[in-house]
Amino acid sequence: MDSSDSIDIFISYRRTDARAISRLIFEDLCRRFGREHVFFDVNRIPLAATHHRYLSEHVARSSVLLVIIGDRWAEGARAFTDDDLVRIEVRAALEAGIPILPILADGAALPLASDALDILQPLLRRQALPVDSGRDFAHQMAAVCRQVELLAGESRIGVVRRQEARSDFPATLSQAPVATRTLTPVHKRASSASRRVFLGSIWLGAAAAVVFSVLRLSSRNTAPPTALALVAPVASTAMENVTPGTISIQASASPAEATLYLDGEPLPSNPYVGRMPADGTQHLIRAEAPGHSSTNRAFVANREVAIILALARTDGQPRGEGKKVRQTTVSPPAVPVPVPLEPTTPAQDDCKVSPYYVDSRNIKVVRPECRSPIQSP
After folding, report:
1. Which sequence spans correspond to the domains of the chain?
2. CA dist list (Å): 141 to 27, 129, 145, 147
3. Which of 212, 262, 296, 344 could staple 286 via S-S, CB 3.0–4.6 A?
4. Are 281 and 258 in contact (CB under 8 A)?
5. Percentage of the chain with pLDDT > 70?
6. What is the pLDDT of residues 84-128, one digit of tens each?
7. Would you call 148 helix, strand, or coil by DSSP?
8. Peptide bond preceding 271: is omega within 30 degrees of 0, i.e. cis?
């Protein structure tokens, strides 16, 4: 694409409802049309510039204005007020005659005409294209790019026509005014004319000699043309390296129903694969899921990023099935068996006191050693 046919795209969005998908649309347009032809206010506004005036001037110089409309595009206390950036950008495009292409992000619908001011109602009557951050993103962005090229071509034709209408000079030589009177020629003597020619030739010769000497001296003190030709590509390559690039980011979290956040803004999917500017600053990836404790990981956007987060359950139950407790059978304690008491042999003197004992059958029996004393008369 030639520089004369380049397409300059301005992206208008609200950070409250369409920041993540606007970043994806910006990266896709940069790959198709070039990063220098896509205006995204987060990266392009200088610190010392007046915010409102800078945006209005860039909208007026753009070929197409993309308005990203999310679910909460018409909500909020400051929506469509005098200092609302979306209203300023759309009004600048309408006043400059810049084509406007509404984009419905992630299934959003156009708000009612009564929800917007009169200056924004022409925007709601334009054809809007849907763009989802899911599997149809590439197919839908191809349709958006075709519509952008069509609107940019129509805008370029309209600019040329307006410039021709404003021009006060004739476009062709046939329309140029023709002189109706000519000056009367003055006849001079031939001697004076020859004298002027002679003096002029002398002055031309002297000037040529001076120029030749200057060029010869400068050629000795400067580098040869080949060296100059080699310096130009090196300088251009260095300038290209100064331009910040992008890095790829891959993030996933378990369980699968966890939601990922990048710098507080939700990411469209889990796992997530995308690109972000290599700005060299610190960013934060956070994962949240019902019934789990949230966790986060910080990284610096200066190289490729791959992050995996595992969330722990808040009820203390480990992942997977709980361990089954092995049941063991405990045998009842053994009942001791009574052992009959054997009779002790008392002394001879005890037979007079207790000559009997009770056996295991609970029968009173005379002790053997006490029989003779009892049976004797």
Report:
1. 3-165, 246-310
2. 11, 9, 6, 10
3. 296
4. no
5. 66
6. 888 889 989 999 999 999 999 999 988 876 666 666 778 888 889
7. helix
8. yes
Residue found by looking up tokens 């100064």 in the block: 242
CA dihedral over 254, 259, 263, 264, signed as positive or negative: negative
Instruction: Tell me phi and psi for residue 286, to 5 degrees.
Output: -125, 145
**Of 43, 36, 47, nearest in space to 8 by CA:** 36
Residue 350 CA neighbour count, 13 Å, CB half: 12
Q: What does the block give as tokens for 251? A: 């993030």
pLDDT at 145: 95
Strands 295-300 and 129-131: unpaired
> Terminus-to-terminus CA distance in the chain, angstroms?
150
**Residue 299 in 3-state DSSP?**
strand
**Residues 25, 107, 259: CA angle, nearest 5 degrees:** 75
Residue 65, amino acid: L
Q: Which residue has the tokens 């992942």?
A: 319
> How far apart are the C-alpha atoms of 286 and 291, rounded to whole Å?
16
Strands 38-39 and 9-12: parallel
pLDDT value, residue 280: 84
Instruction: Decide the pairing of beta strands 64-69 and 100-105.
Output: parallel
Question: Would you state the CATH architecture of domain 3-165?
Answer: 3-Layer(aba) Sandwich (3.40)
Residue 231 to residues 137, 219, 241, 295, 305, Cα–Cα distance (Å): 43, 17, 16, 51, 36
Alpha helices by DSSP H, 222-310: 225-242
Residue 90: left if φ>0, alpha if ψ -120 to 50, beta else—which one? alpha
Q: In the chain, how many H helices and how many E strands? A: 9, 14
